[in-house]
Write a structure and sequence with these properties.
The complex is a heterodimer of chains A (about 650) and B (about 60). With about 650 residues, chain A is of the alpha/beta class. Chain A contains 13 helices and 15 strands. Classes of the chains: A alpha/beta (about 650), B mainly alpha (about 60).
Chain lengths: ~650, ~60
Amino acid sequence: MKFATIAIKNLGVYEASSIRLDAANSGLVFINGNNGRGKTTLINALKWCLFDGKRPSVANGVKLPVPKNPVEVSVTVEIELDPTVRIEIKKSQLVAIKDDGTELQIEEPHFHGKERVHGQPTNTIRDVEERLSRIFPKKLENFILFDAEQLANFFTPDTRTAIQNAVLEIAGVESLDIAIQGLREQASKVSRDLAKLGGSDSSEMQAKVNELDEQIQEQTLSLSTDETNLELAKEDLSSTVLELAKLDYGRKNFENYQNKKADLEDLKAQLLLESKDFDSKLTRSAYQFILGASLHEVDTFYKQGLSAGLPMSFPTESLREVAKMESCICGCELGDSDHGKILRKLIEKQALAEGIDQALPSTKNNASQMLTTISSISKDLITQNKLVTLLRSEIKASEKEISALGDALPVAADWDGLLEKQRRLEARTKNLEASVRQYGQDIAGEKAERASLAAKVERSIQSSKESSLLRSRLRFIDAVSDGAKAVRVKAVELVRGSLEDAMNELYSNIKGGEFKVEISNQFEVGLVNADSQAMSEGEKMSLAYAFALAIRQTLNMQFPLVVDSAFGKLDSQNRLWLSEAVVRMLQDGHERQAVFLMHDLEYTPETKNWFAEGGPSEFYIRHDAKTQISEFADGLDPEWFNSGPWAMHG
Amino acid sequence: MGNPIGIRAALNESALTPSTREYLIMLLDAVAEGENLVSAKLMTQMVSSAEKFEQEEGK
């Protein structure tokens, strides 16, 4: 990698000047200029452009005529990344100068970048800063744009930090640090997920669910019993209420029943009496009359017949029957069947009378009247008999009704007991209903709680599985993080070892292995068995060079080495060592570049001779003392030949 | 820039399990590509690698 051209506009002593470095045959370039000509401005301009360092001021003090209107300041660097790829980076900014000479930034600095690949059209670089950061790592800044004098003391904190940064950059730990930070964020994310799951113990919740299950089972059983009892109580109550209703109805109608019964009994008695009396009186007298009259008539008729000398045959058998009838009537009460018998006898008697009538016409009228009388009496008898039959029927009906009433009437002694039973049953039913309601509510509540707990248990079990997985992931992330940290340590160790090896190789080659370089854990670079504090500044500076060169060797990287005050306080022995080391470095890689900025006491004919093998290109900074403006020019400063080493050299 | 040689060499010399090494390399590649390190893609890879890690630990 080489700087091909560098152009500076309106910065420091430079109004508009550029230097082309790729024209040189080799990568070794000397830009010479005495103090105040703009060597440091060149370095700072590059730092501003490439590493976002502090921008050189617009005006070089009061010496430079400064326009009042805003001016564009810029640094343009063309870099040859390899023989086929070049990029051009321009960093610019509009700045105005106030009356008091201070600067006013009109805009923020900005970049333009172009990339040219051989044989292809030029492309615009979209993110110039990002591209620059990859080409020129910020942490290697001090060893690319190298201020040897500043780094001459390797025991200052700043230098240690620079070396540490360089080692870490070479080791590539920044990406590891980002990865470790990423792992932290991943762990944080997983931890948040874990926290969301909560710390509930599913086994405790499951135990609670089991306990609730038992309670629910017990209560369900109790509920079932209570429900059964309730049903029974309801049935009992229902029958009691029915019984009570019947009782109530019966109680209300009891007196009516009693009265009606009494009435019926009276009626029955009366009917019986009437019937009996009728039977006994009416029937008996009727038959007595009939019989008496009949006997008398018959007797009379017979006597009349005999007295008339008629052959009378008396129906003896019939008379005997009549006698029997009479005896029967007089001796006992007549039954239903007796009426029939009487009637039949009467009919027989009527037939007898008719026979008599045929035999004795003179008595016909008498017999006829007698029969009419008998017939009338018979009709009355039949009517009376029917009435008796009716009365008896009524009596039987009354008896049946009375009997039915008796069945319907309750036993009076159970009435209070039934009322007490009703109250008891009503109270029990209420209790049972309340109990069933309570059980129902309890069971519903417990079922709800159980369902909730079961859901929690399910979630908890699920959570437990998930948390187990998440914890496993956290363990893994921790393991990766630990591994990354171990890799980080190892990578730093490897780089530090490589740098030590490279520095020792440089020293052993150049200095004959007299010294052994060590980079401590605190990133201090020193020589083993040498008192670092007692080392000369030149020795320390040589260590700085060794480190800068070792970086390139270790990384096999092509950074240009740009050094201000390149020799500084190096003694001649170390200058020689440096020249040999640089030439060797350049010979090892044709794409390498070393740009030394030197003043007249550093770049001497002797120096040029040391570097001669590297085929150096020479430039100088031409300075107009009147305008205080500098510009780059080829070759050596002609003024140098008027005095100093070059004049002496001739 | 970051020099992968330092890390790669250290990765080879460090005692890492296959799953942690594999995932760390994935992460470093993601860093090099400027990816979001808590992206769904990487988290999924992490889950997969964590499962392998569990198996390694179980052996």
